[in-house]
Amino acid sequence: KETKLWGGRFEDSVSDAVERFTESISFDKTLYKHDIMGSRAHAEMLQHQGLISEEDRDAILKGLDEIQKQIESGEFIWRVDREDVHMNIEAALTDLVGEPAKKLHTARSRNDQVCTDLRLWSRDAIDSIVSHIKHLQVALVKLALENESLIVPGYTHLQRAQPVLLPHLLLAYVEQLERDAGRLLDCRSRLNFSPLGACALAGTGLPIDRFMTSNALGFTAPLRNSIDAVSDRDFVMEFLSANAILASHLSRLGEEWVLWASEEFGFIIPSDRVSTGSSIMPQKKNPDPMELVRGKSARVIGDLVTLLVLCKGLPQAYNRDLQEDKEPLFDSVKTITGMLEVSADFADNIKFNKERIREALPAGHLDATTLADYLGMAFRTSHDVVGKCVAMCLSRNSCLEEIKLEDLKNISPIFEEDVYEFMGVENAIKNFSSYGSTGSQCVSLQLQHWVRNLHLD
Ligand code: ARG
């Protein structure tokens, strides 16, 4: 057995069970690129500060290039007995370039190294998720543009409420996604500080320059407190919180589209490209991708909970428990990325069943609230009057616009001939005019905003 990099004081080697239990290489090799990035910046700084020679630095940088190539071509052998990504790369570098590699870990600990890697990795992951959010927003705005004047029933409590324009509903998701992207970018700017040089927890007496490595790695500044730097994973919790909120939005979209694809609603027709069948029922065509978007939100929320529970009992500073931050982080990013991709794909592959939606509109008295506004009485009185009209409809199985003027006048003398301009979903939509409402002009302003914002013009 190879001696561990930390093996100096040990007489015996760890048991196989401990080795298997404590390793993280099986998952943290994902960090290799960012680990190498951090090592490059660290080696440059060590040389600049006179802590290693130019020759040592060059040997290290060349060796790191070679290792990166080997990893990317699949030649590199990841060894469980070398525990994690940091020691695998350092030990391989030593195999490759010898003595100079042994100087790379000067004024560095795996404790500052691992959270440097994680912050760099998270930064890239956030950029990628935000660009996936934009793609989904574009897909939703395109659907809105294609169905600009389509009226659909709006629901509260999943009961018929008021008519809305379909773009209005779709743009509600676009707004929610925009805040999701905003939360991720806020998190990005808060996490973009450098732990490198915090070493194990207390910093170092060697003349390092933390500002130099921070700059080289594109961080805003070095973290001010070395104990804080190695100890906290609040940036992971914040990232996973933003993902969990995003996942809950996507899950609601999933739920809505699954409902809308059902025979009972029949409002959307997903294409074969985004549907799957049943192994027993030959007629089935299921909206599985959106069901799984709903389902996988559970994992993303679970990943956040794992992190919160993981960290809540830890004393300062680094504790090995923190190694458990990685799988939830990686899982959350991978899962949310898939959810976003598939939601955009689904949006690109559905048609709205206009016929079915039109047939559905007369049910549920969607125009009742508009009618109450028409009456112009104290609202509670209008509410009561229209309530009586609805009761009349229910007893006759008719809609509001089918009630004769004399019957209306019997309920309230205020009704006049022009009341019919306020009934029916088209008229109801025409009547909306408040900022942010579902009136055609207002929705068209919203659409223009998103066309510009997403560069679709
Ligand atoms: N694999 C470890 C982790 O992910 C790296 C840091 C280990 N540090 C230590 N002192 N054992 O957290």
UniProtKB/TrEMBL annotation:
A cellular-component GO term for this protein: cytosol
Gene Ontology terms: biological process: L-arginine biosynthetic process via ornithine
Catalysed reactions, semicolon-separated: 2-(N(omega)-L-arginino)succinate = fumarate + L-arginine
Keywords in alphabetical order: Amino-acid biosynthesis, Arginine biosynthesis, Lyase
PROSITE patterns documented for this protein: FUMARATE_LYASES (PS00163)
Family of this protein: Belongs to the lyase 1 family. Argininosuccinate lyase subfamily.
Protein name (Swiss-Prot/TrEMBL): argininosuccinate lyase
Source species: Genlisea aurea
